[in-house]
What does this fold into?
Amino acid sequence: MKTIPFIEGIKEFKNIHFKENEILFKELVEKGENPKALFIGCSDSRIIPALITNSKPGDLFVVRNIGNMVPPFKPDDDFHGTAAAIEYAVSVLNVEDIIVCGHSKCGMCRALYEHDKITGIELIHVKNWLKLGDDVKEQVLSIYKENPDIDMYELTEKVNVLYQIKNLLTYPKIKEKVENNSLRLHGWYYIIETGEIEFYNSETNKFEPIV
Ligand SMILES: [Zn+2]
It folds into this structure.
């Protein structure tokens, strides 16, 4: 028999954690989901949205991809996974908050500076996906030229979050809801090595610790 990965964890979930949340799960099945927020995070295995927000099943509608990216609104017949999830969260689930959460040591943000080296058909989608970060890279390089002492990767990770918020506003429904105050957009930055989460403060134009 093929070894099933995580078998001990699955048993533990069923016997302990499922039991602890059984009433909640049943309620979520009967009433359906009504998440508080859409969380757009990186696929990085070190980022666990429910863990870092201490949220419960049903609280977060989560979209994850390489680099917590939001492709700009593009209504064509391609298969836009991230856009479809965003659309569903905003128009059907009516979430009131969207969090774009970047993080420290993000592989995608580093790869932006190396993707010219990526060759071969097996990375065709990755290479194309990284193009979403071209404007971020351009802005960071121009800042870096003037301030060579800054941490270029950290700046990239943070500027990247702001670009994705900008891209969210290219979705007509999001723009409309933000303008009539029924939807709020948040930029977060999670620091893996300290467990801290910073939020983007538009008044100071800085990322500041939440707690
Ligand atoms: Zn990442």
Notes: Residues 42, 44, 67, 103, 106-108 surround zinc ion (CB under 6 Å). The beta strands are 37-42, 60-65, 97-103, 184-191, 196-201, 206-209. The domain at 35-209 is CATH 3.40.1050.10 (Beta-carbonic Anhydrase; Chain A).
